[in-house]
């Protein structure tokens, strides 16, 4: 028996990548065409962006996540993941009310950084994520350093994410810009970069990056797969 994975979706591209990763990487472990039971519940990204854009705090985001959590509980899920880094800032409003346990994306990224002996990570993601506490809290607990992009870089990356990546668009210009940001991290002593937006791994990988990457989406998917298969 395996545990039933519940995916709390937010943006379509990132949730799809997470789901595909679970299914494709399960086959070598479980057999031909096999993977754990997976259910996804997705409220439209627009509903998440309304309170974020309005500066209404993270409580309303937590309520949306809990709606999905309860739907997934009814569908039979045993635990939950959310392949969206930004809305993890709402987790303090979610955990105490959640009907199911969660794996935390930043915690799983931190564990992966530790396994690979990285000491200082460059953070990429939405401006809300890189300015917020989601990664700093988890990385500091693990004794791992981090560096944020400059404010101008945060704004440009945020635009790339919301105007291009969540719509399934990857451009050469966006890739070149992200490479410049990562090169700057490298000169400032980072030994790896966190692809901390769910869609950034669709734009850049280790092959194009000046630093080794930690793909937050696939890292979370692999953690969920391991947990689902634990006896």
Key phrases:
single chain; 231 residues; alpha/beta; Rossmann fold; 2 domains; three-stranded parallel sheet; 10 helices; globular
Notes on the structure:
This protein is α/β, with parallel strands linked by helices and 231 residues long. It has 2 domains: 5-104 and 219-229, Rossmann fold; 105-215, 3-Layer(aba) Sandwich (Rossmann fold), CATH 3.40.50.1860. Helices cover 50% and strands 12% of the residues. The protein has 10 helices and 7 strands. The chain has helices spanning 12-30, 45-54, 59-74, 91-94, 105-115, 127-131, 134-141, 151-163, 172-187, 216-229; strands at residues 5-9, 38-42, 79-81, 120-124, 145-147, 192-195, 213-215. The strands form 2 sheets. The chain has a 4-stranded parallel β-sheet, with helices on both faces. Strand 1, helix 1 (12-30) and strand 2 (38-42) form a beta-alpha-beta unit. It is globular. The termini are close together. 44% of the residues are buried.
Secondary-structure topology with pairs:
Layout: E1 5-9, H1 12-30, E2 38-42, H2 45-54, H3 59-74, E3 79-81, H4 91-94, H5 105-115, E4 120-124, H6 127-131, H7 134-141, E5 145-147, H8 151-163, H9 172-187, E6 192-195, E7 213-215, H10 216-229
Parallel strand pairs: 1-2, 1-3, 4-5, 4-6, 6-7
- The percentage of residues in β strands lies in 5-15%
Count of separate structural domains? 2
Report the top-level CATH class of the largest domain: Alpha Beta
- Physical arrangement of strands within the biggest beta sheet: 5-4-6-7
- CATH topology (fold) name of the largest domain: Rossmann fold
Architecture per CATH nomenclature, i.e. the level-2 architecture of the largest domain: 3-Layer(aba) Sandwich
């Amino acid at each position: 028996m395996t545990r039933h994975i519940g995916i709390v979706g937010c943006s379509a591209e990132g949730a799809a990548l997470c789901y595909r990763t679970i299914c494709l990487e399960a086959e070598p472990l479980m057999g031909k065409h096999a993977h754990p039971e997976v259910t996804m519940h997705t409220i439209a990204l627009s509903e998440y962006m309304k309170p974020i854009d309005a500066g209404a705090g993270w409580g309303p985001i937590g309520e949306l996540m809990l709606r999905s959590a309860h739907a997934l509980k009814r569908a039979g899920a045993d635990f939950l993941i959310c392949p969206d880094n930004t809305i993890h800032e709402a987790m303090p409003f979610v955990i105490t009310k959640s009907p199911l346990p969660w794996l935390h994306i930043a915690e799983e990224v931190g564990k992966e950084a530790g396994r690979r002996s990285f000491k200082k990570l460059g953070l990429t993601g939405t401006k809300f994520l890189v300015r917020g506490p989601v990664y700093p809290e988890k990385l500091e607990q693990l004794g791992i350093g981090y560096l944020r992009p400059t404010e101008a870089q945060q704004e440009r990356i945020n635009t790339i994410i919301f105007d291009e990546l969540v719509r399934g668009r990857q451009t050469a210009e966006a890739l070149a810009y992200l490479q410049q940001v990562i090169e700057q991290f490298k000169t400032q002593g980072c030994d790896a970069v966190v692809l901390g937006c769910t869609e950034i791994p669709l734009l850049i990988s280790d092959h194009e990056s000046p630093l080794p990457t930690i793909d937050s989406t696939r890292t979370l998917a692999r953690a969920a797969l391991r947990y689902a298969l634990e006896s």
